[in-house]
Amino acid sequence: MELKEFYITFHNWLINRGPVYIFGIIIFLVGLWVISFIRARLLQRMSHRKVNSSLQPFIISLSITAMYVLLIISVLNIVGFELTLINTVIGAFGVAAGLALSGTLQNFAGGVLILLLKPFALDDSIRAQGQDGKVTSIQLFYTVLLTADNKTVIIPNGKLFNEVIVNVTREGKRRLDFELKLGYVVDVDQVKEVINKAIKENPLILTEPATRVGVTSLELDGMRFTVNVWVEPANYLTAKIDLQEKIIKDLGAAGVKLPGT
Questions:
Q1: How far apart are CA 160 and CA 142, in angstroms?
Q2: CB-based contacts of 45: which residues, under 8 Å, 6+ apart?
Q3: What integer pLDDT is reported at residue 105 of this predicted model?
Q4: DSSP string of 173-184, one letter each residue
Q5: Is the pTM of this model over 0.85?
Q6: Is 123 left (phi over 0), alpha (psi -120 to 50) or beta?
Q7: Which domains can be identified in the chain, with CATH numbers?
Q8: Contact partners, residue 185, CB within 8 Å, separation at least 6
Q9: How far is residue 128 CA from its own chain's centroid?
Q10: Could you give the count of Cα atoms lying within 13 Å of 205 in the half-sphere of its Cβ?
Q11: CA atoms within 13 A on the CB side of 72
């Protein structure tokens, strides 16, 4: 009698709920195929658009995980499971994780935006957060700079992306500016001739854009000459040192009276 009752109960359940479960299984299998297809298409599209290699695994993982979660929740809804408790637990966990990892998530979001928008690239020289150096690594959570005095500086991406970034190398050329103060006793044309000759003899100075040399300020104790030349970003400091030393020596050799002499 008990076996007969079990058979009747199972038969009724199979008639009433069986098609729903079969439909849920079909939806699940189709969903797996769709997710696999989308994953392949995402990889193809990111390779075609040359998305940063550090960002590709994250995008794939996040997208596929989200689709798996949606698929499982959809199938559970189809077969009639009550998801109120599950949704509550997931929501509470999300809020707790967000509060605990707010700083980390900010750095992560900054890293994603840097990799996507590309305000700078590897080997670019930038100024940001009071630091000046060459970019040696761009990670999801931080960016690494190497300064001119060989210091490694690690900057969190959250702070980096939300502040002003000066990209020194993006345009391919950098203007080198410096001033020279001389007394009124000097011959302006002679000084300009000496400076222009020193510029032409320096192989690190670019011919385009044109250089500019002239008096930019008249003061009680003398006048200021401003020198504007263009160099490759990597040669900036070397060109500045060489040119300033050359100008001082050539002015002295030409008999131009220098301050303090």
A1: 8
A2: none
A3: 73
A4: -EEEEEEEEE-T
A5: no
A6: left
A7: 2-100 (1.10.287), 119-167 (2.30.30.60), 174-253 (3.30.70.100)
A8: 257
A9: 12
A10: 23
A11: 8
Any idea which residue has 């509470």 for tokens?
92
* Residue 5 CB-half CA count within 13 A: 2
- How many angstroms separate the CA atoms of 227 and 214, rounded? 7
pLDDT at 141 (0 to 100):
83
Give the helix ranges, DSSP H, for the chain: 2-48, 56-79, 84-100, 102-117, 157-161, 188-201, 236-253
Name the residue among 214, 239, 232, 235 with its Cα closest to residue 224: 214
3-class SS string, 63-84: HHHHHHHHHHHHHHHHHCCCCH
Report pLDDT for 230: 92
From CA 253, how far away is CA 162, in angstroms rounded? 51
Provide block-wise average pLDDT over 10 residues at a time, the chain (261 residues).
Answer: 57 63 80 84 75 65 77 76 61 56 70 82 85 85 86 88 84 87 87 90 88 88 89 86 90 80 63
212-219/152-156 β-pairing: unpaired
Residue among 130, 125, 137, 118 at smallest CA distance from 163? 130
Residue 58: alpha-carbon gap to chain centroid:
16
Residue located via tokens 């960002």: 55
Which tokens sit at 257? 């009276």
36: which residues sit within 8 A by CB, 6+ positions away? none
- Cα–Cα distances in angstroms (integers) from residue 21 to residues 15, 87, 209, in the given order: 11, 22, 74
Instruction: Say which amino acid occupies 167.
Output: N
Task: Quote the pLDDT of residue 100.
Answer: 45
Using DSSP's 3-state secondary structure scheme, residue 5 falls into helix
| Angle in degrees, 0-180, between the axes of helices 188-201 and 236-253, rounded to the nearest 10 | 140
